[in-house]
Amino acid sequence: MNGNILLSVEDVVVDLPTPRGNLRAVDHVDLTVGAGRTLGVVGESGCGKTMLSRAVLQLLPKKAKLSGRVMFDGQDLLQLPPEKLRKLRGRSLAVVFQDPMTSLNPVLTIGTQLIETLQEHLELDDAAATRRSVELLAAVGIPAPEQRLAQYPHQLSGGMRQRVAIAIALSCEPKLLIADEPTTALDVTIQAQILDLLAREQRRRHMAMIIITHDLGVVAGRTDEVAVMYAGRVVERAPTPALFKKMRMPYTEALLAALPKLDAAPHTPLPAISGRPPDPTRPLRGCSFSPRCRYAVARCQNEKPALEAAETKAHQFACFHPIEDHADANA
Amino acid sequence: MMPQSAPSISSDALLEVDNLVVEYPVGSRIVHAVSGVSLQIARGETLGLVGESGCGKSTLGRAVLQLRRPTAGRVLFDGHDLTTMQGDALRLMRRRVQLIFQDPIASLNPRRKIGDIVAEPLVIAGVKDPEKRKQLVHEVLSAVGLDPTLVVGRLPHEFSGGQCQRICIARALILNPEFIVCDEPVSALDVSIRAQILNLLEEMKARFGLTLLFIAHDLAVVKAVSDRVAVMYLGRLCEVGPSEQLFARPAHPYTALLIEAIPMPDPDIRPAETVPVGEPPSPIAPPSGCRFRTRCPRADQRCSDEMPELRAVAPGQFVACHHPLI
Ligand SMILES: Nc1ncnc2c1ncn2[C@@H]1O[C@H](COP(=O)(O)OP(=O)(O)OP(=O)(O)O)[C@@H](O)[C@H]1O
Ligand SMILES: Nc1ncnc2c1ncn2[C@@H]1O[C@H](COP(=O)(O)OP(=O)(O)OP(=O)(O)O)[C@@H](O)[C@H]1O
Ligand code: SF4
Ligand code: SF4
Ligand SMILES: [Mg+2]
Ligand SMILES: [Mg+2]
């Protein structure tokens, strides 16, 4: 983990002006991703996962205000001129969105899109770029790749489109791939295939990856480290095995408990988290989770807990009244 | 099309689907969306229906409610064949059945107030007294956990996905139906809101004595609420059985594949990389014999020659496979 840090997000804040007032989408987030490592970012809808990844990619809405520092591969992305940034994105910093149509152009063939990306970043002639495109489509599990080059995105299924988006993202051998809910819109079987594909390509290319999801099940077997976000902040962060062995933040525990369990009898009520996250334009003075937290004490309403290290330096959480023993808490 | 049948455990079937076929003409070709499905749902039971995108789940649900007239087959609701019913008789019967959609926000008219949206089925059913309608709307909104005074005057865009789904459930409940088709009611919701809505559906089911057809593509979600589960692939049923039994001992290779694909929240369980690459073939030209054979690790010659029929493999468990896992 240490030594070889590829991405470091330092004290990043994203503010969005809205008719209801300022909306703090990302609230003082610190994160690091080592070269070749996988970070999972987990949290409910609206907690700021996409805004955080867009801050890293420098693809925020125009009106957004960003502060803090984003260091990637030795460069401060906030200081980089737009032209250099554009080169970096798609070359060493790539992204896959939930909806593959966000990154695919509906009026261009798959082949044109792949070849253009390759030629924009690498010095390849047409023949070499075509050959490389076919290889990439084959690598992401697309049958009959030569024929696909002439097809348009709408002629493919959702799963196939996501594979093409991944092929384009991987085309220039990025050092970091950000996958923002790459499988949420897909079926479970296709989801498993896409996640396997990402894991395989990552190992092969020694690429670092950030997987964004709202499902703790997706990150459990597929990440080295997990950051749990709530209301714009990272509220717990730990190596994946340590997190699942001993969750300290009540929110993380609640997210896990809300998943349907395969070993529970049908009709077992799910321990749902009551209510919803707070309105991000009306930040709470105390812990943002306090209105929904079953362990909340008076202090939680008045003071914001800081993200601090627990028994090991790598395991951090922001809570005044952390869960002592995961086994007890579950009982 | 050969019949497929799966008797339910109880003989008191509220709904009986018999050899249902639904086809969509597209140009000169035909989409075989549902190809000879039979199933029963007992009064008070929840039958879960799972399968990949495009396998025909919504088509089946809509054909059951006669929102799409089937090409062939019968749908008996409380003993009456809905497929031959017309006009007033069908309208009266339709009050007893309802549908809840996957995309809660899109299924609400953006320009109408919540109070009017929820009252709409009452208007259609001819409840003329506005006071009576208002009272029923308030009752049903409270039942689904919303504060009527705060929501009736507002528009759909002022609500989150989870709240919109509560509103849709309220609208489906207002005529006191007996049977509801829930078409992926939680697929668009995130983990925590999903748990709230699943719990709400269970509560409503108990409170209003409902019978449910619960459609989803996520087996874990289906298991949480269903007494029995039917697994569908490319227009046909692969397997039907009691939920727990089906999970403990799946008989159909496709059921096993679906179970394997569920992401487990446990880092010690490394995801099995055994999921075969490939996607379902087109329902315009489904494979001969067993429709799953192009992705099945156990497929042999017989699977392409002969269509497997549903047959019992264990008490209450039926499978359509020449080489079942049990
Ligand atoms: N363009 C925008 N203008 C104003 N507010 C926005 C904009 N995009 C997102 N937001 C708000 O910023 C907050 C964070 O949103 P973000 O999209 O990062 O959440 P998320 O965690 O990715 O959620 P999801 O799981 O639904 O994708 C939310 O409150 C959202 O409503
Ligand atoms: N109106 C229509 N005209 C032509 N084909 C249709 C029509 N509606 C559905 N189909 C096709 O019928 C098949 C079954 O579709 P259906 O919507 O029932 O599947 P589903 O299982 O509900 O999928 P999903 O999980 O994506 O909702 C698909 O191949 C679909 O493309
Ligand atoms: S600080 Fe208090 S309210 Fe916040 S998670 Fe911890 S116990 Fe709950
Ligand atoms: S009938 Fe053959 S192809 Fe079909 S599921 Fe069984 S073994 Fe596989
Ligand atoms: Mg997002
Ligand atoms: Mg559907």
What features would you describe in this structure?
The complex is a heterodimer of chains A (331) and B (326). Chain A is of the alpha/beta class and 331 residues long. Chain A has 12 helices and 12 strands. Chain A folds into 2 domains: 226 residues, 3-Layer(aba) Sandwich (Rossmann fold); 84 residues, no CATH class. Chain A has an 8-stranded mixed sheet, with helices on both faces. In chain A, strands 2-1-4-5 form a 4-stranded antiparallel sheet. The radius of gyration of chain A is 21 Å and the shape is globular. The two termini of chain A are 34 Å apart. The C terminus of chain A is likely disordered. Chain B is an alpha/beta fold and 326 residues long. Chain B has a domain of 221 residues: Rossmann fold (3-Layer(aba) Sandwich). Helices cover 31% and strands 23% of the residues of chain B. In chain B, the strands form 2 sheets. Chain B has an 8-stranded mixed sheet with strand order 6-7-8-3-9-10-12-11, sandwiched between helices. The complex binds adenosine-5'-triphosphate (ATP) (2 copies), iron/sulfur cluster (SF4) (2 copies) and magnesium ion (MG) (2 copies). The site of one iron/sulfur cluster has 13 residues of chain B, from loops.
In short:
The complex is a heterodimer of chains A (331) and B (326). Chain A is α/β, with parallel strands linked by helices and 331 residues long.
Please give a handful of descriptors for the protein shown.
heterodimer, A: 331 residues, alpha/beta, Rossmann fold, 2 domains, 12 helices, 12 strands, B: 326 residues, eight-stranded mixed sheet, four-stranded antiparallel sheet, 11 helices, globular, binds adenosine-5'-triphosphate, binds iron/sulfur cluster, binds magnesium ion
